[in-house]
Write a structure and sequence with these properties.
Elements: H1 2-14, E1 20-21, H2 22-28, H3 36-54, E2 63-64, H4 74-82, H5 93-111
Parallel strand pairs: 1-2
Helix pairs in contact: 1-3, 1-5, 2-3, 3-4
């Protein structure tokens, strides 16, 4: 199942305390076209919902957009907002602050998982 493969891979990279881009993650998981990034983002949004429901840090915070200077894509913030985890503007300064906190919390939690 794709979601478990993503979670397993992100747990492995959490040890290095470095994020991974959507493109690099799709390549590492050997996702097949078409729409590999879309496949990935749908799964990551589902994972956000799972993590919020379980009271865990968002493992999806380990995935960033190459085009957004080290931040996740706007969909990450929109999904976090939908589930009540984020209340700001996905393009505002609060997005970077929210991401920094979620990234650090995700590293601490998922490194040991």
């Amino acid at each position: 199942m794709l979601i478990q493969r993503i979670r397993d891979h992100l747990c492995e990279i959490a040890v290095n305390a470095l994020p991974i881009t959507y493109q690099a993650l799709a390549k590492a998981l050997e996702l097949s076209p078409p729409n590999t990034i879309h496949q990935l983002t749908v799964a990551l949004e589902f994972m956000i919902e799972e993590d919020v429901a379980a009271g865990r840090p968002l493992i999806a915070a380990l995935v960033i957009s190459k085009a957004r200077s080290g931040l996740p894509a706007p969909g990450f913030f929109a999904c976090a907002k939908r589930v009540g985890r984020f209340g700001g503007d996905p393009f505002g300064s609060e997005a970077a602050a929210f991401f920094a906190i979620e990234f650090d919390e995700a590293l601490k939690f998922w490194r040991s998982s």
